[in-house]
Amino acid sequence: MILSAAHARCEQRDNRDRLVDFLVQGAGTGPGASLVASRLSNFLVRDITMALRGGWEPEEIARYVRRKTSAAATRVTAAYIGEAARHCSYLNDQESWEQQITNLIADSQRLDCNLPSWRTDVDASISALGVLQHLSKMPDLSSIRQARRKARSQEEERLLARVRALLAKAESSEFPEEADALMAKAQQLMTGHCLDRALLENDGGDSGEGSQVDARRCWLDDPYIEAKGFLLHVVAKANRCKAVLSTSIGFVTIVGHPDDLDASELLFTSLLVQATRRMTAAPADPAHSSRSRRPAYRRSFLVAYATRIGTRLDEANSSATAQAAAANGRDLLPVLAQRDDDVDHAVHKLFGKLGGQSLAASDPAGWVAGTAAADMADLVVQEEIDYKSVS
Questions:
Q1: Are 390 and 162 within 8 A, CB to CB?
Q2: What's the pLDDT tens digit per position in 67-105?
Q3: Which member of 162, 180, 207, 210 lies 3.0 to 4.6 Å from 149 by CB, making a disulfide possible if both were Cys?
Q4: pTM for the predicted model, two decimal places
Q5: DSSP designation for 280
Q6: What is the CA radius of gyration of the chain?
């Protein structure tokens, strides 16, 4: 009965509500409610365990259930993730899982037929099972990790803190020119740091821990997942990473060296905030305001924004690479080429042969506005801007 209710919607049957009502009532027997709670709990643990063994992270399971169902279904799912994870103790980085599970348990609700929320919890559990039983297997990101990444040094933490501060100031700035200059400065700092790390590892000055290629999944929210994924692609490319979009589930896997992944995630988050703010800003012309809310306009805006941002980041990286080469007195191209080969090998190991994806931009006004939003100022960082306040 539980499984029939869980699959009723995907099988386009109209008896789901009747089945849920019957289960809520304890399947018509005295001790039935406790039995229903026990069976639902067992199913949740079983299906979550299968998902974890299939490459899903604890937080990813909760996120996907929330995307497909409701907050109530997510709370019920989160309550059993810790129990399921104990069946997968041989998987992944346990410290990472423990932190994720701790975060999830803070907002969870275990099944209890004596609670006032019993009806809501049964319905939520059925919805969650309907999602969990259709999860596809994920690529095992741990398969390309050679060793655990070593802890960042105090110097690296200070640099990341400065980059975050620059990006936060860019996000909050009301002046596009200042925001773009701050973004460029952040990119230059991260590029210089990553190039220094690449040279250190290539010279054998690093212990080897943390130098290997890694992969992360970045989840995107509706709407315009493809356009947002394209923005992440151009940011990842500028930081010597590769991005693989999984449209049906709603995330992008980025593959690269750890420092390059850090740079990609930080910059993408900031750029998406800035793009959203500029895209949704109310224009002075009421007629344009109505048009700017249309999906075609906003999709075209984001595609154009990403296209121009990609060009500008490439220019910033070329300048930073030339400066690093001059400072170190050596050609960086062989070192970077080897890192590119390592990333390509890891992508092939995870995904095999991949195809490309094209994006249409059908609204000319959206394209022009998106390009303008990404091209407000020169990429040259103005020295007179006072960065000490965000150091």
A1: yes
A2: 999 999 999 999 999 999 988 865 555 677 888 899 899
A3: 210
A4: 0.73
A5: H
A6: 24
